[in-house]
Each structure stands twice: as C-alpha cells, then as structure tokens.
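Q: Here's a chain of 159 amino acids. Please give me its 3D structure as tokens.
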Amino acid sequence: MPDVPAHDQRETIHLLWSYPEHEPRSHDPHYAAFRAAEARMKAAGLWKCVVCGSTENVQGHHSYVEFSLQNGIDVPAFDALYGLHLTDAEFAAWVSSEGNCEPLCRTHHTGPEGVHMLPEPAWKVLRCWRNGLRPPAEVVRGDAQPSAAPCSDELHAGE
C-alpha cells in the first residue's frame, strides 16, 4: 500500500507569454513543408491523436518548438540539448518537419486537456494514463467543476 493516498491539489497559474518577432504563419516559407509533413503522416496512417487515438478534428502541433517561438531559440544550445547539428536554415526547416509535428485532436491540442493548457508533467503522462483513473490534471472553471471529458469536441464548437 502506498504511503501517500490519492488526493487533489489546486493550483492557479497566470502566464505572460513573450513572443519574439516573427512573420505571420501564412508568410512562413516552411508552412507548405508543415502541411506536406501532415499529408505524409496521413498517408502513413499516423494522423490520429497520440493521446486518445481520435481521428476527428486532428491538428498538427509543433511538439518541441512552437512556430511563434522559433526566433527566440539559440540554435547551438538547441543542438546541444537534443544532440543535433543544425544550421539556422536547417533548424527553421526542422520546425516545420515531421520531427516537430505531433497529431492531436482539438481537445488535446488547444482544449482544456490540451498541450497548450496543462503543465508539462501532467501533459506528458496523458499518453499512458490508466483507464478509469481521473486525469492527472483538469481545468477547473469558475464554478469549480472540472472541464468536459477528454476528446469532447462539444467544448470547441465554433472554433
């Protein structure tokens, strides 16, 4: 029997994001490469949410480096961190490649149980969380009720 019983703990976080200057996504010369990477993943049967397996409303997520943050990356430091040897130009292309693209349903991408909402420790374990257990973290709304169940696209109507 574990020494610490299951328990809930509230946490509130407010973030101020600071984005370096960048072109709009539509003007990125590598945007077509990102769409081509998505197409290759679809053709290979890999275009399903890596968390819940849904094939509905799947979107490509920049899993290591967000498009809007890439101009803030020190490429030699990134190379050292991940054991790579990329030039600045190769890094810019890599940001839009399969190596940085993770298929996620809307809920696990931009929804309440998504990579853009949950802290990394809670997000990473969602991929292998036991069925029947409460998720490691849930967005609690002002009425103190947890958000809707994972993969519920009702939350995202009209997005």
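Q: Can you summarize the key feature?
A: Confidence is low (pLDDT under 50) at residues 152-159.
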